[in-house]
Design goal:
Strands 1, 3, 4, 5, 6, 7, 8, 14 and 15 form a nine-stranded mixed sheet that branches. This protein has a four-stranded mixed sheet with strand order 2-13-10-9. The protein is an alpha/beta fold and 320 residues long. The protein is built from nine helices and 15 strands. The longest helix has 20 residues. Helix 2 packs antiparallel against helix 8 and helix 3 runs parallel beside helix 4. Bound molecules: N,N,N-trimethyl-histidine (AVJ). The site of N,N,N-trimethyl-histidine (AVJ) has 12 residues, from strand 13. N,N,N-trimethyl-histidine (AVJ) binds next to strand 13. Keywords: Methyltransferase, S-adenosyl-L-methionine, Transferase. Belongs to the methyltransferase superfamily. EgtD family. Its EC number is 2.1.1.44. Catalyzes the SAM-dependent triple methylation of the alpha-amino group of histidine to form hercynine, a step in the biosynthesis pathway of ergothioneine.
Length: 320
């Protein structure tokens, strides 16, 4: 079966409006910040795929190891008819789940949801070609806003992989999980991947690799703003910085102005002092019991928790 046409719940004009609003608010704030979702234009999505293959970036490999070992358990425990994947990107690891559902179970529909049209186009075509008989319905949407638009009926499994839940701040995470639970029916399932707290000597290089791919990924957000909003960021004026926050147990990516610089954007002049930083991403790391507590607080019941052999990354399976 070929993939169905993408369902667009996020039009170019919604995206533009969202970007303008985030840039207006974030660049006026002290300290300045931007939400990480704007990294992922076609180039940003490619750079992220490149990050996942870097020697320092362990989360993708570790999560793949968990899924390789336990995808069959997920299929058997959930008996899902519909698999919905939030922030699906390339859906590369999802194939481990689709393979398990092919072996046992009768999954009928796969619904990847992502803000990136380019990533969805290629992933839906590739998945549809590789899994004949599977209905593939790609949705262009924002997982923080479009949970009420997910397809209903049949037993559903929502997968939120990669540790992307760590991009949400704690209050946003609680709000997201509560909205997720409300969008599901009792007996539906949530599979969520979380990067785990570990030696910062392992975490920091994963976000500051020797080849500089993460630095390019980080700076890409400035290129997106230049192109989409006609801004004039001097991209080379900014240096990539990754900082571990031991109290909040998250890593932050920032862009540090190496010398005083300014940008004209949305009819406003924004100035950066030398050394001033713009926060572009928070990526929280979790403790196994913390994830269970957050799931319970939002009405889920965690039925399984698996890690890779090195204990780097955790995957929780929770019942709504
Ligand atoms: C896609 C959000 C899981 O936080 O590790 C990779 C994004 N940022 N390198 C992460 C990212 C810097 C990634 N997630």
């Amino acid at each position: 079966m070929s993939a169905e046409p993408l369902e667009i719940h996020l039009e170019q004009q919604d995206l533009d409006r969202g970007l303008r609003e985030d840039v207006r608010v974030g660049l006026a704030a002290t300290p300045k910040w931007l939400p990480p979702k704007w990294f992922y234009d076609a180039r940003g999505s490619e750079l992220f795929e490149e990050i996942t293959r870097l020697p320092e970036y362990y989360p993708t490999r570790a999560e793949r190891a968990v899924l390789a070992a336990h995808a069959d358990d997920v299929a058997a425990m959930t008996g899902a008819k519909t698999l919905i994947e939030l922030g699906s990107g390339s859906s590369e690891k999802t194939r481990l789940l689709l393979d398990a559902f092919t072996r046992h179970g009768d999954l009928g529909t796969f619904v990847p949801l992502d803000v990136s049209v380019s990533a969805l186009r290629s992933s839906t075509e590739q998945i549809a070609a590789a899994y004949p008989g599977l209905r593939v319905r790609g949705i262009v949407g924002d997982f923080t806003r479009h949970l009420d638009r997910l397809p209903t009926g049949g037993r559903r499994l929502v997968a939120f992989l990669g540790g992307t839940i760590g991009n949400l701040l704690p209050a946003e995470r609680a709000e997201f999980l509560t909205a997720m639970r409300a969008a599901l029916e009792t007996g539906d399932w949530l599979l969520v991947g979380t990067d785990l707290v570990k030696d910062p000597g392992v975490i920091v290089p994963a976000y500051d690799d020797a080849a500089g791919v993460t630095a390019e990924f980080n700076r890409n957000v400035l290129r997106v703003i230049n192109r989409e909003l006609g801004a004039d960021f001097d991209v080379d004026a900014f240096r990539h910085v990754a900082v571990w926050d031991p109290r909040r147990e998250w890593i932050e990516m920032r862009l540090r102005a190496e010398h005083p610089t300014g940008v004209r954007v949305l009819d406003t002049d924004v100035v950066f002092a030398a050394g001033e930083e713009l926060r572009t991403e928070v990526s929280a790391k979790f403790r196994p019991e913390g994830v269970a507590a957050e799931l319970t607080a939002s009405g889920f019941d965690r039925r399984a928790f698996w890690t890779d052999p090195d204990g780097l990354f955790g995957v929780s399976l929770a019942r709504a």
